[in-house]
């Protein structure tokens, strides 16, 4: 007996073929009037997405009728009985992988979108990923412990989602941005190895790899150093890939390591895609010997001039190069300089005329070969790295260098502990205020905070940040010094984090951990372009749930019980025509 949805019906003049679909795939059902009886006449009325139950006999297909594209392509079922369990309206789009329909319509009817084989495959990968993680960590002595969803608001990162308290008017809970403080308190509690598949919430602007609610693997260990945490997570990721997506190749193990500074210099990103080269090259010294004032001015003002070499793209037309220039400007560059390398090493086009006297040095520095296109940006280090880092990925796609079946993982280490916030005139934590500085750098907290390195580590893969963690501060005096550096006064620190500071006085062990972005990890394993494709019921870029209509207004009585009043912003008066 089989049950599922009618994927397709074909009437071949005397025989009716129905493709029956469930989460395991598709099987062909044959209705023959000589063998199916009344079921044949019922099959004539079937429509797409009707829910049916079939009884029949499994038979091998004739060799010439075998379908190699189906897992069940060697067999078919001759139906003897058909029960229609539920009729379906015509769906707003065809339930198959190859559809040309907008995402809004897909999200409006997400329960139909999830019937598509691709979406079912994604959810299955997600299920297997989480199950593997749970089993793997359990076998290594980790306890899964749930932490509260309603917690205290301690704003130190993205905006909190706030939940008003009915029983304590005027007071609010926050939904956790992560269980960061709670997992550290579990270490103080003597739970040496903790993990959780945690739901987290951040009220921030959305993009392809962000959602207002998301899932983390949250993991913490006591009495460890950074090497212990990294080694365990590297083993977990390696075995996860080999088990859940065995068709994928891990480019290099052990995973390579780059310092934050090295990653930015070479790839323009702290989450570089190492499936291909095309590294950023410093060409400031070459340009300093030319008369090109635009670049020399940037160099003299302390800026940077860097290049990337696009192999074989000297064939690009002026129109194609203009498209790259537009992309660069959209990412913040004032322009995009370029030059082509011709046969014999001669330079042509773009800014080639300014390089005539330094051609050999330019070619030696860049390593460019005949047929290559060299692209350059001059600006502050931040702009140069942002633009060329993104341009590198764009060209990697165009040149087919980002093999989807290869996974290139890399650890990024030695992040700065803090960064200067020019707008606020203060230091901000690069990760979070509980990240421990390297012990040898602690004296610099008082003299040169910008040079203090964090005991932090990120795991990147294929251009995505997949996990991030650190060794935590476990001493109250060091934590107090960190708060002071971040311009959090003693009263504010006590009000926001007093529970942690007090806990540190009762014997907090050294500890550290990491958090994986489960949605991003599954996205990479499933070869999807954004995390919405691996979440069952995601929100849109504006945070809306198109299927249920959330967020929505609520009954005024609910607001009254919560002692809340809605005050909407005043609308700008419409301008009148003169």
Automatic annotation (TrEMBL):
Q: Cellular component GO terms, alphabetically?
A: cytoplasm
Q: Which reactions fall under this protein's catalytic activity?
A: tRNA(Asx) + L-aspartate + ATP = L-aspartyl-tRNA(Asx) + AMP + diphosphate
* Top-level lineage group: Bacteria
**What InterPro entries is this protein classified in?**
Aa-tRNA-synt_II, aa-tRNA-synth_II, aa-tRNA-synth_II/BPL/LPL, Asp-tRNA-ligase_1, Asp-tRNA-ligase_1_N, Asp/Asn-tRNA-synth_IIb, AspRS_core, GAD-like_sf
Annotated site residue numbers, Important for tRNA non-discrimination: 12
**Where would you find this protein in the cell?**
Cytoplasm
In the record, biological process GO terms are:
aspartyl-tRNA aminoacylation
Q: What is its EC number?
A: 6.1.1.23
| Keywords on record | Aminoacyl-tRNA synthetase, ATP-binding, Cytoplasm, Ligase, Nucleotide-binding, Protein biosynthesis
Q: What HAMAP family does its record include?
A: Asp_tRNA_synth_type1
Family membership, please give it.
Belongs to the class-II aminoacyl-tRNA synthetase family. Type 1 subfamily.
Partners and quaternary state?
A: Homodimer.
Specify the protein name: Aspartate--tRNA(Asp/Asn) ligase
**Encoding gene per record:** aspS
